[in-house]
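User: Second chain of the day. Same drill as before.
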Amino acid sequence: MSYLSQPHFHNEEAAYAFVESRVWPNGPVCPHCGGTERNKLMGGASTRIGTYKCYDCRKPFTVKVGTIFESSHIPLRLWLQGIYLVAASKKGISANQLHRTLGITLKSAWFMGHRIREAMRDGSNDLLGGGGSIVEADETYMAAKRGEKAIQGGGHRSKVVSLVSREGKTRSFHIANVDAKNLHPILMANIAKDTHLMTDGAGHYKKIGQEFDLHESTNHAQKEYAKDSKVQGVRAHSNTVESYFGILKRGITGVYHHVSEEHLQRYVDEFDFRFSNRKSLGINDVQRADLLLKGVVGKRLTYETIAQ
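Assistant: Same format as last time:
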């Protein structure tokens, strides 16, 4: 039986119960005052599904308040279908596909996709690496910016730098330019200094690499893509981050076709999330969707914010 046959994808009460079990594992929490002791599920024929009343602050609420679902008129069961489809689609799923599959308007599907990506954003301040573990860093160039013609070099293209821990976690950033001035603060803020940093031979990494326990690089210009590391039993390469770029570019080009500068960061957050929680790390589609659902709290996004 398909997982999409589960009750919470088709029944609104089951959908609310499913989301509540993930967002409130220890029982309902009032989003207005934080109360946990005096929340009661309201009854009555005219009461909306999943509505509670907090008898501390006297205000009603549902599990949607303070999440990406707030003020949405789309049924929660369709939200759960959308979340599962995005989480399970290795290279993403277009707004047009969500529109056709879920039976919602294209405008709603586009907005839903962005709110789901917002839930996929890594909000933690944890440093990557540490303890001598390996983090690979590299940058890539995306499609030409809107309104600019393709010319030789990368000045006309959007730039992304990615940091990939070989233990799994990935973080990517849309940057203005590929140079030490832009890369240094990103690497310093996201990678522990007691890390084994691996990059290609680009000059902007040479000085930055001196601030980590060990920095090794491979010379791609000389067709050197891997070599024995100074650490016994380890191979020096940046092939993991290159593998991530392969998925990112196939998704952006083949599924989304074009991503504007103002939204690019949210799209790379989407690909970061799936790559950080991929099958080879022991996380299947169902588990990945559950992890995504746990990230919906505190990340409300309004249409006016993104529809520029």
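The mean pLDDT is 93.

User: Great, on to the next one.
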